[in-house]
Specification:
The chain is of the alpha+beta class. The chain is built from 4 helices and 11 strands, in the order E-E-E-E-E-H-E-H-E-H-E-E-E-E-H. A 5-stranded mixed sheet has the order 7-6-5-10-11. A hairpin with a 2-residue loop joins strand 1 and strand 2.
Length: about 170
């Protein structure tokens, strides 16, 4: 059974439990199995050799998640070519596709962890009580080591976009 971290995250001030480890910069990035909009399996190895900026959101259909996804989609065009931007949520792939079409999300890959929840458990972002992913950002280098991460304590708050984007640029150079 995965480790539980009580009080690791809050939602509107209420303490919740995160399932999985609390990763640190320098750790080897855990593998995961998520699915894309065509129901194909995607793993960490699927983007081997690239720098990955992984944006984690509870649900694309909420205001902060919407803004976070749009912000990273817009920023993706300005990142070095060896940086891949991924957004992971527990939303169904069909809902993700609808969101991406409506919001013109076309520079990032949006992935669903609804089937196995392996990303959530392996990266320590699965919220036990809500069965949603907590907000976080990970930058994984081409060497599969975590270069930067931010677990956003309060789910309704934004991550530090500038720090994440700068970390991705640094890892790519």
């Amino acid at each position: 059974m995965a480790k539980e971290r009580s009080g690791a995250v809050t939602f509107k001030g209420n303490a919740l439990t995160a399932i999985g480890p609390e990763l640190k910069a320098g750790d080897k990035a855990p593998d995961f199995k998520v699915i894309d909009g065509k129901l194909n399996e995607v793993t960490l190895k699927s983007s081997a050799g690239s720098v990955r900026l992984i944006s984690v959101v509870p649900s694309l259909d909420t205001p902060v998640c919407d803004q976070q996804t749009r912000k990273f989609n817009e920023a993706a065009a300005k990142l070095p070519g060896n940086v891949k931007v991924l957004t992971v949520s527990l939303d169904l792939p069909f809902a993700q596709g609808r969101f991406c079409t409506t919001a013109n999300i076309d520079k990032i890959q949006v992935l669903s962890d609804h089937r196995a929840r392996s990303f959530g458990e392996n990266y320590g972002v699965l919220i036990k009580e809500l069965q949603l992913l907590s907000r976080a950002v990970f930058v994984v280098g081409a060497d599969d080591k975590i270069k930067y991460l931010q677990y956003v304590k309060e789910v309704t708050e934004h991550p530090d976009y500038d720090k994440a984007l700068n970390a991705a640029k640094t890892a790519a150079s």
